[in-house]
């Protein structure tokens, strides 16, 4: 595992939960809102998913095999357990659903290619944009959402 990837994994797990406590979806928005405007766009979802794919494609072959996907799942679940209060709902439920292996392994070969992962970004965005206003914000999280 390269130092950059290890650092990325550590950052993913160590990001503070304080923002989540201050506003619904704070942890997600702090991590996925790449331009810091308080709203996550479809382009930001695409960019972040690409960065996640690169981080977990340890052998750099353009595929997330079962071991790499397992590491991705474990890391993501640990991050959610640390930073999410209660069960995923609203936009977080959409994010969880968007990372389902079967949904991303389009051709059913057991591995997820970069193209397959990228192809699912628009669907992931749509699942998260609960109020269908074209961006994911705190309004898409919290009580009564999903």
Going by helix content, strand content and strand pairing, the class is mainly alpha
CATH homologous superfamily descriptor of the domain at 39-140:
EF-hand
Task: Give the total of beta strands.
Answer: 2
**Rg from Cα:** 15 Å
Unreliable spans: 13-20
What is the top-level CATH class of the domain at 39-140? Mainly Alpha
| Main pleated sheet | 2 strands, antiparallel
How are the elements arranged and paired?
Layout: H1 3-14, H2 18-22, H3 26-32, H4 42-56, E1 63-64, H5 66-83, H6 91-98, H7 101-104, E2 112-113, H8 114-119, H9 121-128
Antiparallel strand pairs: 1-2
Helix pairs in contact: 1-5, 4-9, 6-9
What do these coordinates show?
The chain is mostly helical. The protein has a domain at 39-140: Recoverin, domain 1 (Orthogonal Bundle), CATH 1.10.238.10. Helices cover 57% and strands 3% of the residues. The protein contains 9 helices and 2 strands. It has helices spanning 3-14, 18-22, 26-32, 42-56, 66-83, 91-98, 101-104, 114-119, 121-128; strands spanning 63-64, 112-113. A two-stranded antiparallel sheet has the order 1-2. It is globular.
Write a concise keyword list for the protein shown above.
9 helices, 146 residues, Recoverin, domain 1, two-stranded antiparallel sheet, mainly alpha, 2 strands, 57% helix
């Amino acid at each position: 595992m390269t130092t950059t990837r290890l650092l990325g994994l550590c950052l993913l797990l160590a990001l503070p939960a304080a923002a989540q406590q201050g506003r619904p979806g704070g942890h997600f928005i702090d991590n996925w809102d790449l331009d810091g405007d308080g709203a996550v766009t479809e382009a930001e979802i695409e960019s972040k998913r690409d960065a996640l794919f690169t981080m977990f494609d340890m052998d750099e072959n353009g595929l997330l095999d079962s071991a790499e996907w397992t590491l991705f799942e474990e890391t993501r679940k640990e991050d959610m357990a640390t930073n999410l209060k209660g069960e995923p709902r609203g936009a977080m439920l959409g994010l969880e659903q968007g990372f389902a292996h079967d949904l991303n392994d389009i051709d059913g070969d057991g591995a997820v290619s970069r193209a397959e992962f990228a192809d699912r970004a628009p669907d992931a965005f749509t699942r998260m944009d609960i109020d269908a206003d074209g961006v994911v914000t705190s309004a898409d999280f919290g009580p009564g959402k999903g």
